[in-house]
Every structure is written in structure tokens, then in C-alpha cells.
Amino acid sequence: MPPKVKFEKESIVNAAYKVVRKNGWEGLSARSIAKELECSTGPIYSQLKSMENLVEEVLLKAWALFEKYMLTPTTGDKWMDQGIGYLRFAKDEKSLFKAIFDEKNNFQQREIGVRTWMNLGKELSDYPLFKGLSDEMQLEIRASRWIFVHGMASLITNAHNLNTVKIDKDEMGYHMERI
Question: How far out from the chain centre does Cα 128 lie?
């Protein structure tokens, strides 16, 4: 009898992440993970304490990618880059975008989202246009941008005719500069 193949927790999390990235939460099950790993469901059940733990791990990976998009320099302007990164993530990673902003896992999303919000704020701590503004005013400005880009991102992920939206400084810059 051949030896049983062991799967580490990390490979199971990575397989679950791929499933969600491709098909959203609706596609996530022990069977879909097993199919991704080309194994039975046995190793998955033996490695996981609960599906909630797995979902949290997938959310952490998804938020990390989201944050990476927002911190990737594209224009040389941190403010603009964060907004454009947000929109690019929504366009490139529709299933992940929907997964991190749906109401299914609201508690984990809020907790992870706050950490991301704080990290992005730290990135803007030396932003020249924020110099001399109170912390309260900076938060208000950031919230206004978030409302704008989140609305645009939601349109991009949910409307089929917006798949061709160009996401660059010329297209979105005007609105973000106004904010």
C-alpha cells in the first residue's frame, strides 16, 4: 500500500485561497479544496480545526494582496496610487474583492480591514498635501476617497459593461484630486 500523502496547513490554505480567488465563497468547500489539491477530503478535515479558521486565513491572504495593490507605486503620488490600487484590485481580482467586502464574514473583515486602514494611513503620514491638517480632517478626506473608490470598485466588479474601464490617473485622478 502506498504511503499516505500529508498536506500541510499552508498548502490547504493556499488551495482554499485559489478556490475563493476563482469562484468566491460560493465555491469553497472541502471537496473543492480537495479537487485543487488532487486528494480526498480526508487530509483537509484532519488538518483543519474549523472552516472558520480556514476562512480567516483566506481573508488574511486576500487582504494582504489588496493592501499590496494599494501600496504599489504607479504614479509617484501615494494618495493617487492607493486609490488606483484599490480599483485595480477590484478589476483584476473580482472574486477576492467580493469576498473581502461581502457580509458573510463581517467580523473578520472588520478586524482585518481596520489593520489595513491603519497601515495605509501610516503610508500617508508624510503626504505633503496632508501637512498641517488635523488628524480628524485627514480621516475625513481618506473616508471620502474610500467612499468614492469603493463605489467605483463595486461598479467595476458587478457591472459587466465596465470591464473595459481604464484605471489610471487620467481616468480617476480628477475625482481623487477633488476629494
Answer: 27
3-state secondary structure the chain: CCCCCCCCHHHHHHHHHHHHHHHCHHHCCHHHHHHHHCCCCHHHHHHCCCHHHHHHHHHHHHHHHHHHHHHCCCCCCHHHHHHHHHHHHHHHCHHHHHHHHCCCCHHHHHHHHHHHHHHHHHHCCCCHHHCCCCHHHHHHHHHHHHHHHHHHHHHHHHCHHHCCCCCCHHHHHHHHHHC
d(CA 92, CA 156): 10
Which of 5-9, 135-139, 175-179 is least confident?
175-179
* R_g over Cα of the chain: 19
Query: Can you give the pTM of this predicted structure?
Result: 0.86
CA distance 70 to 43: 35
Range in 4-18, 20-34, 76-90, 137-151 the model is least confident about: 4-18
The reported pLDDT for the residue numbered 105 is 73
